[in-house]
Amino acid sequence: MLRGMARQCPTCQRAVSQGWPENPSAPFCSGRCKGVDLGRWLNESYRVVARDAAPDEATVAELERALQDPKRWS
Ligand SMILES: [Zn+2]
Fold this sequence. Notes:
By secondary structure, the chain is mainly alpha-helical. The chain is built from two helices and no strands. It has one domain: 2-Layer Sandwich (Erythroid Transcription Factor GATA-1, Chain A).
């Protein structure tokens, strides 16, 4: 991992010598690297949301069993 005050751009691994306020893109070396990382992060989030939104097969089977159980509705 990083030692001391040395910083690396999380996107391109280049040394980042300046933080806030001199470098408004810190901890990234540039606005471009900041944008790349943000885009990657958003893609990950969308994938997680999409996966969680779809019920898994076990849940669907459980719901269908419950709907077909006559005792549930008597
Ligand atoms: Zn960079």
